[in-house]
Amino acid sequence: MRTQVAIIGAGPSGLLLSQLLHLNGIDTVVLERRTADYVLGRIRAGVLEQGMVELLREAGAGDRMDREALIHDGTDICFNGTRHRIDFKGLTGGKVVTVYGQTEVTRDLMEARAAMDGQLVYEAADVAIHELDTDRPRLRYRKDGAEHEVRCDYVVGCDGFHGISRRTIPDTVLRTYERVYPFGWMGLLSATPPVSEELIYVNHDRGFALCSMRSASRSRYYVQCPADDKVDDWSDDRFWAELIARLPPDAAETIVTGASLEKTIAPLRSFVAEPMRYQRLFLAGDSAHIVPPTGAKGLNLAASDIHYLSRALIDFYKSGSTEGIDTYSDTCLARVWKAERFSWWMTMLLHRFPEASDFDRKIQNAELEYLMSSEVAMASLAENYVGLPY
Ligand code: APR
Ligand code: PHB
After folding, report:
1. What single DSSP character describes residue 247?
2. Nearest ligand to residue 299 Cα
3. Which residues have C-beta atoms less than 6 Å from ligand 1?
C-alpha cells in the first residue's frame, strides 16, 4: 500500500487528523490495534474548548455536537462545604466551554471518515515503523494472519501513551518529564440527571470529588481514591455514599443516584516527551503528553496538536514549504507545557495528598480563599479552563 501520511492509532487524534488531511486532498491510512467497538467503549473526558469545537466543525464532524452539546458559562468550586462560582463567560470576555463526551466525538469522527471512504484498518497487530531515516518510511503490521506494508512520506504517532511510536525515537534523542500523583479517580457513569447545571469541583477532607455530565439525563461523577484501589472495591452503594459525603449540603440532598453504566479507575499522571518530531515521525496527543484529568485538558491538547500538524502538512503538500513541519514540535510544546502547568495546579489545589503536612493544607486553603477573593485570580483560572489561544 502507498499513502502520503500513515497514521498509527484511531483515537480522537488520529481520526481528526485523517479527516482534516483528506478534506485537503491528502491521502492517509490509519492503523488501529483495537476494534471500532473497543475504541468507542472507552469512557473519557467530556469538556471541549472552543478551538476543538471549531476543528470538529472544520472536519465536517460537528453537526451532532452543535445540536446536542451543552454550553457551560462557568463552573463551581467547593471547599470547606461552600460552593463558589467561576464565571468563565464574564471573566474571559464571552468565552465558554462545550460539554460533549469524547465517546461522541469519536463516534462522529468515525462516521465522517466512513462517509468519505477513509482508509482505516482496525485490528492491525504488531505495527512497526521502518526506515524513518529515509524519505520513504514504511509501516509493517499483521492482520488476519497476513503481513502488510504501507509506504508513506510521513508517519504520525497518534497511538496514545502506551503506543509504539514514541518508543521508536532513540533514547539519545527523546527526553521525558513525568510526575505520578499518589491517588486515582474512581469514575461512575449513570443514567441520572446531573445534580447541578454546571460542573462542581470539590475539595474535601475525605478527598477530591467532581460532578460532571454527558447530557441532561446522563451524569459522570468522580471521587479521589487510593492509587492501588480496584473497581471491585467500589460497589455502586459505596461510591454514592462516598460522593455524597464529599458534596456541599444542597447537592448532597438533591443528587439522584442510580445503577452504574460504567465504572473505571484512572491513575493521575503528568508526562511530556520532547521533541514531538523525529525525522519523518510526528507524535500527537497522548503519545506525546499526558495530563491529570483535573481541568479537562487531555482531549483539548490532542486537538491543538492536530491543529498545528494538519496545517503544517497541508502547507507542505500545497507549497512544498517545510516551515510548519520544522516548527511543529516547538510550537506544540509551548502550549503543551502551559496546559501541563494548569492541570498540575488544579490537581494540587483540589486533592488530598497523603504526604501533606498541616502547613501544606493551610497553604492549599489559603490558595482557595485567595482565588475566590480575587477577580484576577479567578480570571486566570477561567482563561486557562476555556483554553489558551492556538
Ligand atoms: N498500533 C496501533 N494502534 C495503537 C497502538 C499500536 N501499537 N497502540 C495504541 N493504539 C491505539 C489505541 O488502541 C487507541 O485507539 O491508538 C489509539 C490512541 O487513542 P487515545 O489513547 O484516545 O489517544 P489520542 O487519540 O491522542 O486522544 C487524546 O487525550 O486525555 C486524553 O482522554 C483523552 O484519550 C484522549 C486523548
Ligand atoms: C468528565 O466529564 O469526565 C470530566 C470533566 C471535567 C474534568 C475531568 C473529567 O476536569
Report:
1. S
2. 1
3. 8-14, 31-34, 39, 44-45, 102, 124, 127, 158-160, 162-164, 285-286, 298-299, 302
Nearest ligand to residue 120 Cα: 1
Nearest C-alpha neighbor of 50 from the set 108, 15, 96, 101? 96
Contacts of 306 by beta carbon, 8 Å cutoff, 6+ apart: 13, 16, 17, 20, 55, 284, 285
Separation of CA 269 and ligand 1 centre (Å): 16
Q: What is the pLDDT, as a whole number, of residue 85?
A: 98
8-state DSSP, 256: P
Other residues' Cβ atoms within 10 Å of the Cβ of residue 230: 9
Q: How far is CA 168 from CA 18, 165, 325, in A?
A: 21, 5, 19
Among the bound ligands, name the one nearest to the CA of residue 8. 1
Catalytic residues: 72, 201, 293, 297, 385
* Å from CA of 86 to ligand 1 middle: 32
Q: Which atom of ligand 1 is nearest to the CA of 102?
A: 32
Cell of 227: 492509587
C-alpha span between 238 and 213 (Å, rounded): 20
Coil, helix or strand for 356? coil
- Asked if 265 and 186 count as a contact pair (C-beta separation under 8 A), the reply is yes
CA–CA separation, 381 vs 276, rounded Å? 27
Longest dimension (CA), the chain: 64
Residue 159's Cβ-count burial label (10 Å; 0-12, 13-18, 19+) is: buried
Average pLDDT, rounded, for the chain = 97
Instruction: For residues 119-140, give the mean pLDDT.
Output: 97
CB atoms within 10 A of CB 282: 29
Length of the chain: 390
- Residue 45 pLDDT > 90: no
The three-state secondary structure class of 363 is helix
**Ligand 2: residues whose CB is within 6 Å?**
45-47, 199, 212, 220, 293-296
C-alpha pair distances (Å), 89 with each of 74, 150, 300, 386: 7, 47, 19, 9
Q: Is the pTM of this model over 0.85?
A: yes
